[in-house]
Write a structure and sequence with these properties.
It is globular and about 65 Å long. 48% of the residues lie in helices and 15% in strands. Helix 2 packs antiparallel against helix 3. The protein has a five-stranded antiparallel beta sheet. It folds into two domains: 41 residues, no CATH class; 178 residues, Beta-Lactamase, CATH 3.30.450. The longest helix has 16 residues. The relative contact order is 0.12. The protein is an alpha+beta fold.
Length: 242
């Protein structure tokens, strides 16, 4: 017996003979398999009766208020979509990484661009997080054309993506420190926060901020100063690098 479920019934589930198990059955299996909350939530979405989305991918547009907030922030920040597209970013984010410009895609950059990979000392951990979060974000909507196009491209071009995708990991992203290598400032560690945007279900506001009073805070302040004062930017950053 598996958490009150007969071996015969479990075998039927495993072989796909029963495609509509109850929530109670799934929760029992999750307890026995010691699935965490993210994996349980993903499991429930796979079997829940939900209306299918249209096959045309909806356009993701940041609300005007979120754009105003983004530009008012003194920290590097950007707005990302469901598939990690960069939908908006402020000047300091682009100074931190040119790849954070509108139109970029973080999955493509992380898996296909060696220069972007070299920018992150913990690149392997970051790619694990991205792929696991992509599975969570997509849920049952695997026929979305944008999803098919992106995952197909990455699977063909990146062995690392194929390896991670085959794991079927599901995980939500949470705030935490991230290490970066900047060509002028050197290595710095910033805290990354991902904040949901009200009225825009699939969009997130991502903000980088340093520990107060740290050397990383000084480097970021220098970068902000150089970004605002372009003529002196080269001299300022060269002094920081030296």
């Amino acid at each position: 017996m598996l958490a009150g479920i007969s071996a015969d019934y479990y075998l039927r589930l495993e072989r796909g003979r029963d495609r509509r198990p109850s929530v109670q059955v799934l929760e029992s299996i999750a307890r026995v398999l010691r699935l965490d909350d993210d994996h349980l939530a993903h499991l429930l979405t796979l079997v829940a009766e939900q209306p299918r989305r249209r096959r045309r991918s909806p356009k993701e547009t940041p609300p005007p208020g979120a754009l105003k907030l983004l530009e008012s922030l003194a920290q590097p920040a950007y707005i990302e979509g469901r598939y990690f597209d960069i939908l908006a970013s402020n000047g300091l984010a682009r100074a931190l990484s040119p790849r954070l410009a509108v139109g970029g895609n973080q999955l493509r950059d992380m898996f296909l661009d060696p220069a972007e990979q070299a920018r992150y000392p913990d690149w392997q951990d970051l790619t694990e997080c991205l792929v696991a979060n992509l599975r969570q974000a997509v849920g049952t909507d695997v026929d979305d054309p944008r999803f098919i196009e992106l995952t197909g491209e990455l699977a063909l071009a990146s062995a690392r993506f194929r390896q991670l995708w085959a794991r079927h990991e599901v995980r939500g992203q949470s705030g935490g420190p991230i290490r970066m290598r900047h060509p002028q400032l050197g290595e710095l560690t910033l805290n990354r926060e991902r904040l949901a945007i009200g009225g825009a279900e699939t969009l997130m506001l991502v903000v980088f901020h340093p520990e107060a009073g740290s050397g990383d805070a000084e480097k970021l302040a220098l970068l902000a100063s150089a970004t605002l004062d372009a003529p002196d930017a080269g001299r300022r950053l060269q002094r920081a690098e030296a």
